[in-house]
Amino acid sequence: MTQEQITLGGGCFWCLEAIYQEIIGVEKVVSGYAGGQTENPAYKAICTGTTGHAEVTQISFDSDVISVDELLTIFWHIHDPTTLNRQGNDVGTQYRSVIFYHTEAQREAAEQSKTAVAPSFSSPIVTEIAPLPPFYPAEKYHQNYYNDNGNQPYCRAIISPKVHKFRKSFQDKLVSSQ
Q1: What is the pLDDT along the chain (178 residues), one digit of tens a residue?
Q2: Catalytic residues
Q3: Would you list the DSSP string of 52-105?
Q4: Do the beta carbons of residue 61 and residue 27 sit within 8 Å?
Q5: Among 7, 23, 51, 125, which is most buried by a count of CB atoms within 10 Å?
Q6: Which candidate, 116, 75, 67, places its Cα nearest to that of 99?
Q7: Exposure pattern of 77-101 as b/e (b: 16+ CB <10 Å)?
Q8: How far is 169 from 155, CA to CA, in rounded Å?
Q9: Do the Cβ atoms of 87 and 10 come closer than 8 Å?
Q10: Residue 64 Cα distances to 67, 125, 173, angstroms
Q11: What letter would DSSP give residue 27?
Q12: Under 8 Å between Cβ of 79 and 174
Protein backbone atom coordinates (compact mmCIF):
# COMPACT_ATOMS: atom_id res chain seq x y z
CA MET A 1 0.00 0.00 0.00
CA THR A 2 1.31 3.41 -0.97
CA GLN A 3 -0.53 6.09 0.95
CA GLU A 4 -0.65 9.65 -0.35
CA GLN A 5 -2.66 12.76 0.39
CA ILE A 6 -4.01 15.53 -1.79
CA THR A 7 -6.09 18.51 -0.70
CA LEU A 8 -8.90 19.79 -2.91
CA GLY A 9 -11.40 22.62 -2.73
CA GLY A 10 -14.42 22.92 -4.99
CA GLY A 11 -17.15 24.75 -3.11
CA CYS A 12 -18.62 23.45 0.10
CA PHE A 13 -16.38 20.81 1.68
CA TRP A 14 -19.43 18.72 2.58
CA CYS A 15 -20.03 18.06 -1.13
CA LEU A 16 -16.50 16.91 -1.90
CA GLU A 17 -16.29 14.88 1.30
CA ALA A 18 -19.54 13.02 0.47
CA ILE A 19 -18.22 12.00 -2.92
CA TYR A 20 -14.60 11.14 -2.11
CA GLN A 21 -15.70 8.97 0.84
CA GLU A 22 -17.36 6.63 -1.67
CA ILE A 23 -14.30 5.95 -3.82
CA ILE A 24 -12.38 2.69 -3.81
CA GLY A 25 -8.85 3.36 -2.57
CA VAL A 26 -9.72 6.46 -0.56
CA GLU A 27 -8.82 5.69 3.04
CA LYS A 28 -9.89 8.92 4.77
CA VAL A 29 -11.40 12.30 3.95
CA VAL A 30 -11.05 15.22 6.36
CA SER A 31 -12.95 18.47 5.83
CA GLY A 32 -10.92 21.52 6.72
CA TYR A 33 -9.48 24.89 5.83
CA ALA A 34 -6.34 25.89 3.93
CA GLY A 35 -4.89 28.81 2.06
CA GLY A 36 -5.51 31.66 4.47
CA GLN A 37 -3.56 33.83 6.84
CA THR A 38 -5.30 33.06 10.16
CA GLU A 39 -3.93 30.28 12.37
CA ASN A 40 -6.47 27.73 13.64
CA PRO A 41 -9.46 29.35 11.93
CA ALA A 42 -13.02 28.55 12.98
CA TYR A 43 -15.98 28.02 10.68
CA LYS A 44 -17.67 31.25 11.75
CA ALA A 45 -14.58 33.24 10.71
CA ILE A 46 -14.19 31.27 7.47
CA CYS A 47 -17.78 32.15 6.52
CA THR A 48 -16.96 35.87 6.61
CA GLY A 49 -14.49 35.38 3.77
CA THR A 50 -11.92 37.50 5.61
CA THR A 51 -9.46 34.77 6.67
CA GLY A 52 -8.42 33.87 3.12
CA HIS A 53 -9.03 30.17 3.69
CA ALA A 54 -10.84 27.84 1.32
CA GLU A 55 -13.08 25.03 2.46
CA VAL A 56 -11.15 21.93 1.39
CA THR A 57 -11.06 18.19 1.81
CA GLN A 58 -7.79 16.44 2.57
CA ILE A 59 -7.96 13.04 0.92
CA SER A 60 -5.77 10.14 2.07
CA PHE A 61 -5.64 7.42 -0.55
CA ASP A 62 -3.83 4.28 -1.63
CA SER A 63 -2.15 5.25 -4.88
CA ASP A 64 -1.76 1.54 -5.73
CA VAL A 65 -5.58 1.42 -5.95
CA ILE A 66 -6.54 4.87 -7.25
CA SER A 67 -4.23 7.38 -8.90
CA VAL A 68 -3.96 11.11 -8.48
CA ASP A 69 -5.07 11.38 -12.11
CA GLU A 70 -8.29 9.49 -11.35
CA LEU A 71 -8.98 11.64 -8.28
CA LEU A 72 -8.45 14.76 -10.40
CA THR A 73 -10.76 13.48 -13.14
CA ILE A 74 -13.45 13.14 -10.49
CA PHE A 75 -12.62 16.61 -9.12
CA TRP A 76 -13.18 18.29 -12.50
CA HIS A 77 -16.46 16.39 -12.89
CA ILE A 78 -18.04 17.20 -9.51
CA HIS A 79 -17.78 21.00 -9.47
CA ASP A 80 -17.60 23.95 -11.84
CA PRO A 81 -13.94 25.00 -12.06
CA THR A 82 -14.84 27.99 -14.25
CA THR A 83 -16.65 30.04 -11.61
CA LEU A 84 -14.42 32.28 -9.52
CA ASN A 85 -15.08 32.07 -5.78
CA ARG A 86 -18.45 30.42 -6.25
CA GLN A 87 -20.23 27.10 -6.53
CA GLY A 88 -23.96 27.49 -7.08
CA ASN A 89 -25.43 29.58 -4.26
CA ASP A 90 -22.23 29.28 -2.20
CA VAL A 91 -20.36 32.54 -2.87
CA GLY A 92 -17.06 33.79 -1.47
CA THR A 93 -13.33 33.10 -1.61
CA GLN A 94 -13.86 30.23 0.85
CA TYR A 95 -15.64 28.35 -1.96
CA ARG A 96 -12.90 28.76 -4.57
CA SER A 97 -11.71 25.94 -6.77
CA VAL A 98 -8.23 24.90 -5.68
CA ILE A 99 -5.82 22.00 -5.83
CA PHE A 100 -3.27 22.04 -3.01
CA TYR A 101 -0.64 19.53 -4.05
CA HIS A 102 1.57 17.68 -1.58
CA THR A 103 4.32 16.63 -4.00
CA GLU A 104 5.92 17.85 -7.20
CA ALA A 105 4.44 14.84 -9.02
CA GLN A 106 0.96 15.95 -7.90
CA ARG A 107 1.65 19.48 -9.16
CA GLU A 108 2.61 18.10 -12.56
CA ALA A 109 -0.46 15.84 -12.61
CA ALA A 110 -2.72 18.76 -11.67
CA GLU A 111 -1.29 21.02 -14.39
CA GLN A 112 -1.56 18.28 -17.03
CA SER A 113 -5.07 17.36 -15.94
CA LYS A 114 -6.20 21.00 -16.04
CA THR A 115 -4.80 21.42 -19.54
CA ALA A 116 -6.40 18.19 -20.73
CA VAL A 117 -9.88 18.99 -19.37
CA ALA A 118 -9.94 22.69 -20.33
CA PRO A 119 -11.44 22.16 -23.83
CA SER A 120 -14.50 20.46 -22.29
CA PHE A 121 -15.55 23.72 -20.58
CA SER A 122 -17.01 26.72 -22.38
CA SER A 123 -15.27 29.18 -20.04
CA PRO A 124 -11.66 29.31 -18.80
CA ILE A 125 -10.77 27.21 -15.74
CA VAL A 126 -10.00 29.42 -12.72
CA THR A 127 -8.80 26.63 -10.43
CA GLU A 128 -5.78 27.61 -8.38
CA ILE A 129 -2.95 25.06 -8.23
CA ALA A 130 -0.59 25.69 -5.30
CA PRO A 131 1.60 23.87 -2.77
CA LEU A 132 -0.20 22.79 0.37
CA PRO A 133 -0.22 25.57 2.96
CA PRO A 134 -1.05 24.81 6.60
CA PHE A 135 -4.18 22.64 6.77
CA TYR A 136 -6.61 22.94 9.66
CA PRO A 137 -9.25 20.23 10.18
CA ALA A 138 -12.74 21.68 10.47
CA GLU A 139 -14.78 21.32 13.62
CA LYS A 140 -15.98 17.81 14.45
CA TYR A 141 -19.58 18.45 13.38
CA HIS A 142 -18.36 19.12 9.80
CA GLN A 143 -16.74 15.68 9.49
CA ASN A 144 -18.79 12.98 7.75
CA TYR A 145 -21.50 15.63 7.41
CA TYR A 146 -23.58 14.22 4.56
CA ASN A 147 -23.61 10.70 5.97
CA ASP A 148 -24.64 11.99 9.40
CA ASN A 149 -27.12 14.64 8.20
CA GLY A 150 -28.53 13.38 4.90
CA ASN A 151 -32.03 14.64 5.63
CA GLN A 152 -30.89 18.19 6.35
CA PRO A 153 -32.31 20.55 3.64
CA TYR A 154 -28.87 21.56 2.25
CA CYS A 155 -27.92 17.91 1.96
CA ARG A 156 -31.14 16.97 0.16
CA ALA A 157 -31.16 19.97 -2.18
CA ILE A 158 -27.45 20.45 -2.96
CA ILE A 159 -25.33 17.45 -2.00
CA SER A 160 -27.66 14.56 -2.92
CA PRO A 161 -27.97 15.55 -6.60
CA LYS A 162 -24.16 15.84 -6.87
CA VAL A 163 -23.67 12.45 -5.21
CA HIS A 164 -26.24 10.79 -7.49
CA LYS A 165 -24.65 12.34 -10.60
CA PHE A 166 -21.25 11.13 -9.44
CA ARG A 167 -22.54 7.60 -8.79
CA LYS A 168 -23.96 7.37 -12.32
CA SER A 169 -20.75 8.56 -13.95
CA PHE A 170 -18.21 6.70 -11.80
CA GLN A 171 -19.89 3.41 -10.84
CA ASP A 172 -16.63 1.53 -11.30
CA LYS A 173 -14.94 3.68 -8.62
CA LEU A 174 -17.50 3.18 -5.85
CA VAL A 175 -16.62 1.37 -2.62
CA SER A 176 -19.90 -0.54 -2.83
CA SER A 177 -23.07 -0.50 -4.85
CA GLN A 178 -24.93 2.55 -3.54
Answers
A1: 899 999 999 999 999 999 999 999 999 999 999 999 999 999 999 999 999 999 999 999 999 999 999 999 999 999 999 999 999 889 999 999 999 999 999 999 999 999 999 999 999 999 999 999 999 999 999 999 999 999 999 999 999 999 999 999 998 888 764 4
A2: 12
A3: --EEEEEEEEETTTS-HHHHHHHHHHHS-TTSTTEETTEESGGG-EEEEESSHH
A4: yes
A5: 7
A6: 75
A7: bbbbbebeebbeebeebbbbbbbbb
A8: 20
A9: yes
A10: 7, 29, 14
A11: E
A12: no
User: Which of 70, 63, 83, 66 lies closest to 10, judged by CA?
Assistant: 83
Helix (H, G, I), strand (E, B) or coil at 133: coil
Cα→Cα distances 91→42, 48, 95, 167, Å: 18, 11, 6, 26
CA atoms lying within 13 Å on the CB side of residue 118: 11
How far apart are alpha carbons 58 and 98 in whole angstroms? Answer: 12
Domain 3-173 falls in which CATH fold?
A: Peptide Methionine Sulfoxide Reductase; Chain A (3.30.1060)
Distance of CA 142 to the CA centre of its chain: 14
Measured between its terminal Cα atoms, the distance across the chain in Å is: 25
Q: Determine the distance from the C-alpha atom of residue 22 to the mean position of all C-alpha atoms in its chain, rounded to a whole number.
A: 13
